[in-house]
Design goal:
The protein is an alpha+beta fold. The chain folds into two domains: about 140 residues, no CATH class; about 90 residues, Roll (Nuclear Transport Factor 2, Chain: A), CATH 3.10.450. The protein is built from six helices and 15 strands. The strands form three sheets. The chain has an eight-stranded antiparallel β-sheet. The longest helix is centred in the first third of the chain and has 16 residues. It is elongated, with a radius of gyration of 22 Å.
């Protein structure tokens, strides 16, 4: 941070960096800049907070290559702020840019946390429940807005369980175009019915059109997705009610 920053800004910024670092499994670099002064702290105000981080790891195997965050002006608890603890008195609007690498995404897909969230994905096919149990999934970021997925699943339908392998190429939803499935092929197994494909596409549409997600006291929505070769960039808008810990799950709101 520049030397001309006020002592109170430096103090709060350094304490915030320590708080966040302590809640991460690993962190290569993190810099937090709290814009305020002593008078504003006593009034419970801050002009905003910016965060820049690299190599952040949560839930053991979930790694974020790069994150940048900028908030609006915020209302903070003045008493906790004086002791280096940032507590929000009112929700704050935030813009977040997240960069994920292909390597980190595939590493996360093998983690116990992600696998536990993907167990027994269920679909309603003409009144019958059909479930998928993922065994192996790999993602390839092709660039030009395209993502390829290759995987193996156990398909459970009509009392039977059978293996199925697939490859799929899709374009995720962006601020200028809807999500598109460019290709889907069964590479092992007996294939799947048209009814099952229709139900799967409807479920995928529902998931991609969820307006917001929640992680602890943060509600966020995906505003844009950029797929470059080997990297995925997400632009998010969030409303933060409180600074989170790293112990809660991510789930749709």
């Amino acid at each position: 941070m520049p030397d001309e920053h006020r002592l109170e800004e430096k103090f709060l910024s350094q304490e915030a960096e320590k708080q966040i670092s302590d809640r991460l499994d690993e962190v290569e670099q993190i810099e937090i800049d709290v814009k305020t002064d002593l008078l504003k702290i006593l009034q419970g105000q801050s002009d905003g907070v910016s965060v820049a981080g690299q190599g952040l790891v949560i839930k053991e195997d979930i790694r974020i290559q790069e994150i940048k965050l900028q908030t609006d002006s915020i209302a903070i608890n003045p008493f906790s702020a004086l002791f280096g603890q940032i507590e929000l008195n009112e929700p704050v609007n935030t813009i977040i840019r997240v960069l994920l690498t292909e390597v980190d995404i595939n590493r996360a897909l093998t983690s116990e946390f992600i696998r536990s969230q993907m167990q027994n994905f269920e679909l309603n096919v003409d009144g019958e429940i059909v479930s998928f149990e993922p065994e192996e999934i790999q993602v390839f970021l092709l660039g030009n807005g395209k993502i390829e997925s290759r995987g193996k699943v156990l398909l459970k339908e009509m009392g039977n369980t059978r293996p199925l392998a697939y490859t799929a190429i899709a374009r995720p939803r962006t601020n200028s175009q809807p999500a598109m499935l460019e290709g889907f092929n069964c590479t092992e197994g007996e294939g799947i019915s048209i009814e099952l494909i229709t139900a799967f596409m409807q479920k995928a549409k529902e998931l991609m059109n969820i307006p917001s997600f929640k992680w602890e006291d943060i509600s966020f929505s995906i505003k844009d997705i950029e797929v470059q070769k080997g990297t995925l960039i997400l632009m998010l808008e969030a409303q933060v009610k409180q600074i989170p810990s790293s112990s809660s799950l991510i789930s749709p709101s």
